[in-house]
Amino acid sequence: MNKACIIGAGSSGIAAAKVLKQHGIPFDCFERGSGIGGNWRYRNDNGMSAAYGSLHINTSKDRMAYSDYPMPDDYPDYLHHSQVLEYFESYVDHFGIRPDIHFKTTVKDISPTADGAWDVTISGPNGAGRETRNYAAVLVSNGHHWDPRLPEFPGEFTGRARHSHSFETSSGLEDRNVLVVGIGNSGVDIACEASHVARRVLLSTRKSAHILPKYVLGRPIDTYTSPLANYLPLAVQQLFFTFLMKIANGPQGRYGVPTPEHSLLQAHPTISSELLNLAGHGKVTIKPNIEELRGDQVAFSDGTVEPIDEIIYATGYKISFPFLRPEIVNSRGNDVRLYRLVAHSEHTKLFFIGLIQPLGAVMPLAEAQAIWVAKLLTGECKLPPADTMERRIDADLRAMQKRYVTSKRHTIQVDFFAYRELMRKEVRKGRQPAARRVPIINPSRS
Q1: How far apart are CA 60 and CA 180, in angstroms?
Q2: Radius of gyration (Cα) for the chain, nearest Å?
């Protein structure tokens, strides 16, 4: 079939759909839920959204917007999830891609065929209407914040325990002792929200994190980054942001939040304008790692024991592809071997869109990935040989391990501007003369 398959209609899937449409590439986009938006659709009926009622973005609106569809001027710097979804709905309708999205359709399996294409097995609601279709290429954009990763601790907890993925509001936490595990963005947001109703809130962390405010000197903090800054040595970038933090907050240890041993930009920072103040007021108490669960109590590595009614594990997610066999892509330990985190070195008609964790927003980077993939599909660009891709994968993994703290959270980490430029570079260096172009999918002439 002279057609591409896009799996998922979240922020990355709709970007891929728009780009393919602009390149004249026919496609089907399959979405398990009844609407677009993915993680940003609160209470999404696909069961995969991790959005909670109070969720706001931690990237400013201009950095989150797609390149050719700016956000409305009357939007605030930091959008509520309902505004993000509203923007996505407008984007989908503006570019006319909604008719190409098949809702309430689940991709059950994708299998390579002898000619390098893909058989995609889909089903409708409740497993009805199961069928297999053939596609020339597959773009996977199913997201990586939907399969909760739960830690294991010695002992047993007799209170209520859940992952942050199921958290919606602080209702039900009134007058309870709540322990939130994990100092990432979701964990901190939940701890701060719970502190307004709970009897006590404790926030457990193994390594702590650098806490960055949303604003510095009246400007969203991410506006202090720029494409030019990425050409500066990492030490210079770290020095600059350390200076900004001193201006904005002073030492975070002064508020009762330990300063991590790793330097800024060596791990994903946590963006919060509330945590330090709440910690300083005693509304959120920072605790070290859990040592043992003891019924209705929790013992910590500092020797303290606290009574706990509820634990919320904000401990991240597993990268999962339930429709892909492990021999095709094995994501155990959140490790994925993909060229530039997009292309498979063996199955060269299989691509991944949005499988990145940037210091910044995913959306513009997913769009840049999709542009490169579209040009690969039309033959305008060509991938390097498989052995070249494998060497590059190894080199990129070594560089990532050297730069970032070892963690399942940092296996797909990228810098926003550097990665966006990398996508543009792949387009430039892979461009083929017109006479040598061999399209995977022939663009439509309409």
Answers
A1: 26
A2: 23
Tell whether the model's pLDDT for residue 403 goes beyond 60.
yes
**What sign does the dihedral 405-149-185-418 (CA atoms) show?**
positive
Q: Are 310 and 298 in contact (CB under 8 A)?
A: no
Q: Which residues lie below 8 Å from residue 85, measured CB to CB, with a gap of 6+? A: 37, 40, 41, 42
Average pLDDT over residues 32-56: 96
CATH code, 4-147+317-436:
3.50.50.60
Q: Is 406 exposed, middle or buried (0-12, 13-18, 19+ CB in 10 A)?
A: exposed
Mean pLDDT (the chain, rounded): 95
Residues 6+ apart with CB under 8 A from 49: 37, 38, 39, 40, 41, 42, 43, 146
437: CB partners within 8 A, 6+ apart: 378, 379, 380
Question: What DSSP element (H or E) covers 395?
Answer: helix 386-403
Q: Where in the chain is the domain with CATH 3.50.50.60?
A: 4-147+317-436, 155-313
DSSP state of 292: E
Q: What is the CATH number of domain 155-313?
A: 3.50.50.60
Distance separating alpha carbons of residues 44 and 31, to the nearest angstrom: 11
Which DSSP helix (H) or strand (E) runs through 423?
A: helix 416-430
pLDDT for the residue 446: 43
Strands 27-30 and 4-7: parallel
In angstroms, rounded to a whole number, what is the distance separating the alpha carbons of residues 222 and 186? 18
Per the structure block, which two tokens stand in for 16? 């891929």
> End-to-end alpha-carbon separation of the chain, Å?
18
What pLDDT sits at residue 445?
Answer: 54
**Separation of CA 250 from chain center:** 29
